[in-house]
Design brief:
160 residues, alpha+beta, seven-stranded mixed β-sheet, globular
Length: 160
Amino acid sequence: MPSVKVRVATMKDLPGIMRLEAECFDERRFEQETVTAFVVRNDTIALVAVDERMIVGAAMCMFSKRCGEGRIASIAVMDGRREKGLASRLLIECEKRMMALGVRRCGLEVGIENTPAISLYLKHGYVLKTMAKDYYGAKKHAYLMEKSISKGPKKKVKVS
């Protein structure tokens, strides 16, 4: 079986990303206009995991260099390719790319019923901050999670 490659998404990947969004996220999925923005903007990162020519995973995140903060907006892995470490690879690659841009803290939202995703984020050091009631609509709550992804430069402290 050929190895899966993770790379930056292009506009040619849009149909495959949209297929994944539809498969993975029901009414919570992003519209094509939003996915396009993740692919083309300079304050976002869109990645795809490709097995031969088929997109089997995708991740999208946004960041602010000024604030040093980022946000994981979406990680999607094709059914049948889950539980093989692909979501971890996409998450780690998003974090690495954000760290290289000066991002120090990363947050995300995850549906409280999405146990596999919650486990993934906890495994990678994300901490539950709070629950947002009705975040995804009536009675569709989310956990807000956060992680420090870079310590940044150490500050010198004068001791007198």
